[in-house]
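Renewal narrative, Specific Aim 1. Our central claim is that a sequence can be written position by position from structural information alone. The example that follows is taken directly from our test logs and has not been curated for this report. It begins with the structure tokens describing the chain, in the order in which they were read.
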């Protein structure tokens, strides 16, 4: 194995492995350093996303959603099932198999693209030298024309609620329980809290979600967040806003959580506790002082719009830099950086970044929220359409939620799209594409949408922006 490369990527999550593959495709001699050891004790590629994030959580969401439908929807449809039960170890084993297949797939792609996987922990030194320390503590140094730091993020831990065996866990721990806790408490009503809270709620746990903020999902359009709160509460998620967790204490097999809300001090007991209070950039252990890379006190590596650090030829991408902590954001940054390094053109449009919360119904959005447009003084117009009026949603028996779109009044440009409802994650795609193409509401309104599809709700929302929706009564505005 050579010790000189055109590109060394440190970290093989969705930011790093995509950067490595794209760099290799462009003819650059590429290596990727990765230290992850998986649940089976084997070195693995794929990072947080494939091993303990996006993919395993979605596998569990899929299994539990089907179980929930079988319990609560099948009888309405006319399907008689008899007694139902969930085999939790089989569900977990299925999730593990999916993870192993996908992470193994990245390994195959590395081989196919001639990428050297340097197994171990990488550290960036001065002059674009990378030291790799293997699990047996042996170290080797490599040099590169360009280094890409893609070391991701780790869960934020609260001193007051230390992790404890499988009772007080972070998001990764909550993906591996082999039985259903009777009482589950989640700290944080963010994306992880809602997704993993939903998984265990569907299997029968009593779930209390304690959220310090008074506002539910502040990054989501207010109308959508209000609808989401209503639906999640009806599913039995006990979401308590304005409840700041102060500490936890494990007594035997249960945990007592203390928190403060508007009424003062409170406590609750649970069998399991998930700490889901955000993630922090993982950089300090990765960059030596002599490398002289600029970063802030939270560990975020400073980069320009092309993800280049203060040292020419050293880039940083993904969760370790500013911006939303999303897999697709990191991957696009990886493509951009590889293309720039090879002398090509690279760009990430941060204004058109899709976001999805994979609950049921899903919550998905792109662009500005109505509250953002108001505070920016933009002259906008909103259009919306409820799934209750969608023929396809009715046929599916899944009518909760709506589509809401926002347009610039003068130019008719699409400024934002917000969906809560069945298939929201896939439905959002057309709005993302429309925004990327600088499309207008009229473009969506004039596009033929197949009938009956859920995407007709987007069409009708576009029509409703100026009072032309066909399947709801609306007032003509212009
Ligand atoms: P990571 O995926 O964290 O990868 C970084 C890699 O760098 C790791 O493999 C790590 O081992 C390696 N590394 C670190 N330091 C070193 C070193 N010194 N030497 C060698 N290797 C090193 N995002 C979405 O877009 N959609 C989702 O549905 C979604 N669901 C999620 C669910 C959960 C439960 C969690 C926790 C996260 C989820 N995310 C989701 C967020 C997503 O996982 C992250 O945004 C994404 O993984 C970031 O990619 P990354 O490559 O920057 O970092
Ligand atoms: P988050 O920032 O989304 O939510 C954390 C929540 O915890 C916040 O609402 C915060 O107010 C609350 N909190 C913090 N301290 C608290 C305390 N002491 N008591 C009560 N509440 C407290 O973070 P997360 O849910 O941990 O997710 C981390 C990252 O992973 C996110 O940035 C997200 O983008 C990413 N992620 C994305 C997806 C997805 O795209 N579907 C899924 C999971 C995770």
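The sequence written for that structure reads:
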């Amino acid at each position: 194995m050579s010790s000189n490369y055109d590109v060394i990527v440190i970290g093989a999550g969705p930011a790093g492995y995509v950067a490595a593959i794209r760099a290799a495709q462009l003819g650059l001699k590429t290596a990727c350093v990765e230290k992850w050891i998986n649940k089976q004790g084997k070195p693995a590629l794929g990072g947080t996303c494939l091993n303990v994030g996006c993919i395993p959580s979605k596998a569990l969401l899929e299994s539990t959603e089907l179980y929930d439908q079988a319990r609560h929807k099948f009888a309405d449809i006319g399907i008689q099932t008899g007694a139902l039960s969930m085999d939790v170890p089989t569900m977990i084993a299925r999730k593990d198999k999916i993870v192993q297949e996908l992470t193994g797939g990245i390994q195959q792609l590395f081989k196919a693209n001639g990428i050297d996987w340097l197994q171990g922990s990488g550290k960036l030194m001065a002059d674009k030298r990378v030291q790799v320390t293997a699990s047996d503590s042996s170290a080797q140094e490599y040099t590169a024309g360009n280094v890409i730091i893609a070391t991701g993020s780790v869960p934020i831990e609260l001193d007051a609620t230390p992790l404890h065996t499988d009772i007080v866990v972070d998001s990764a721990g909550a993906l591996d329980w082999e039985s259903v806790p009777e009482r589950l408490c989640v700290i944080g009503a963010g994306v992880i809290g809602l997704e993993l809270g939903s998984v265990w709620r569907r299997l029968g746990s009593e779930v209390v979600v304690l959220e310090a903020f008074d506002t539910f999902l502040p990054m989501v359009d207010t109308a959508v967040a209000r609808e989401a709160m209503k639906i999640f509460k009806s599913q039995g998620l006990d979401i308590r806003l304005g409840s700041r967790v102060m500490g936890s204490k494990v007594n035997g097999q249960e945990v007592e959580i203390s928190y403060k809300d508007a009424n003062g001090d409170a406590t609750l007991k649970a069998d399991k506790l998930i700490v889901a209070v955000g993630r922090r950039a993982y950089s300090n252990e990765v960059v030596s002082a002599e490398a002289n890379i600029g970063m802030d006190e939270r560990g975020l590596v400073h980069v320009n719009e092309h993800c280049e650090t203060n040292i020419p030829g050293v880039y940083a991408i993904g969760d370790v830099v500013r911006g939303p902590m999303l897999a697709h954001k990191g991957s696009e940054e990886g493509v951009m950086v590889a293309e720039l390094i090879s002398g090509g053109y690279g760009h990430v449009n941060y204004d058109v970044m899709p976001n999805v919360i994979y609950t049921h119904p899903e919550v998905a959005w792109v662009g500005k929220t109505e509250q953002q447009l108001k505070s920016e003084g933009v002259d906008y117009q909103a259009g919306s359409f409820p799934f209750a009026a969608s023929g396809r949603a009715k046929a599916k028996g899944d009518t909760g939620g709506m589509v809401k779109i926002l347009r610039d009044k003068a130019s008719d440009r699409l400024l934002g799209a917000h969906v809560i409802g069945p298939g929201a994650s896939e439905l959002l795609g057309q709005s993302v594409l429309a925004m990327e193409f600088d499309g207008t509401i009229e473009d969506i309104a004039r596009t033929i949408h197949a009938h009956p599809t859920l995407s007709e709700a987007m069409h009708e929302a576009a029509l409703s922006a100026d009072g032309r929706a066909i399947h709801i009564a609306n007032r003509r505005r212009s």
